[in-house]
Amino acid sequence: MQDNGDNRSPLRLILLFLIVIVVPLAIGLYMAPRLVPQPKIGVIRLNYEISNATAFEFREQLIYARDDPSIKAVVIVINSPGGTASDSEDLYMDVLAARQDLPVVATVDFLAASGAYYIASAADAIYAKPGSAIGSIGVISSLPEAPFLEEEVLTTGPYKSFGGTRDGYVRRAETLKFAFLQAVANGRGEKLNADLDLLSRAEIFGGVRALELGLIDGIISTSEAFDKAAELAGIRGYETVELYPLAFGEDGPVAFGTYQVPAINQEKLWATPADLPPGLYYRYIELPANH
Predict the structure, then answer these.
(1) Domain at 155, CATH number
(2) How far is residue 57's CA from residue 256's CA, in Å, rounded to a whole number?
(3) Which domain holds residue 239?
(4) What is the largest CA-CA distance in the chain?
(5) Residue 22 and residue 9: Cα distance in Å, rounded?
(6) Cβ pair 45, 57 in contact under 8 A
(7) What is the pLDDT at residue 215?
(8) 266 lies in a domain?
């Protein structure tokens, strides 16, 4: 009786190898990206003044990122002069909360001033360009009118029509300023090289100077900031996704599939705002030289 093992030709062994090893491996490589979603980095673009409406848009994108398991990190691309104090503080806390679920990196394009930097200070890391403008850590507020009596108007308190005294508004603005400074100190930690007295002057710093002061973590491009976020998330081979159309879908402010990254109007970005409603703002306003 002849041993069947002697009849095994090299061709049969190669065919067996292809069937048992190569074909399943090829099928696995083909099916892997379809069965396991490619990791994603979500992009939120803060290309506007911070108000109640724009804060809502920002928050919805952040919520979407936290709820989508394929999104492993978020990068906030900032071009903003700041905005209302309450909304800036709200988004600061939203970013802190999001960091419990996934890394959040901020990268400054042209401008991250006042409330926009407040939000950035909550991120895991902040990056910028050499020519970026960063800082303006402080508050701007409109003072109430001086109290006066009006015979035809009845109020149950002397400041019911005015909201408080002028010095009370000053004290409130100072309280918010110190809260802003403390948020920056907490966020930057030992990396902060500037004392709070310097920062309280509310200056705008270029990217290189901001790095020296410890307000940012490095001078890199936006694409490199995505790589930094990927490192924090421990992923490779990622893709970036714009979160605005994903968060709002077909019935949102834009039709899904037609979203384009909004163009940045630098002239408007740097313009002094007009007709702001009374209130407290973390907002960069460049005053005239003779002011």
Answers:
(1) 3.90.226.10
(2) 15
(3) 38-283
(4) 124
(5) 19
(6) no
(7) 97
(8) yes
Q: Which of 114, 38, 32, 123 is nearest to 77 (CA)?
A: 123
Q: What is the pLDDT of residues 139-150, one digit of tens each?
A: 887 777 777 777
In a domain, 256, yes or no: yes
Q: Is residue 262 part of a domain?
A: yes
Report whether 50 contacts 84 (CB < 8 A). Answer: yes
Q: How confident is the model at residue 23 (pLDDT cuts 50, 70, 90)?
A: low
Handedness of CA 233, 236, 238, 240 (dihedral sign): positive
Give domain status of residue 44, yes or no: yes
DSSP three-state, residue 137: coil
Judge contact between 214 and 193, C-beta under 8 A. yes
Q: Which residue has the tokens 């906030």?
A: 76
Give the least confident one: 131-135, 172-176, 212-216, 271-275: 271-275
d(CA 98, CA 80): 21
Beta-sheet pairing, 204-206 with 133-135: antiparallel
pLDDT value for 121: 96
Kindly tell me if the per-residue pLDDT of 245 is higher than 70.
Answer: yes
What is the tens place of the pLDDT at every residue in 75-107? Answer: 999 999 999 999 999 999 999 999 999 999 999
Residue 210 zone, left/alpha/beta (φ > 0; ψ -120 to 50; rest) = alpha
Pairing of strands 280-283, 82-84: antiparallel
Instruction: Classify 151 as helix, strand or coil.
Output: coil
Q: What is the pLDDT of residue 278?
A: 73
Total domains in the fold of the chain:
1
CA angle (253 as vertex; 78, 58 as ends), nearest 5: 30
Reported as a single tens digit per residue, the pLDDT across 157-168 is 777 767 777 777
Buried b / exposed e over 167-180, threshold 16 CB at 10 Å, is eebeebbeebbeeb
Tokens matching residue 36: 């396991």
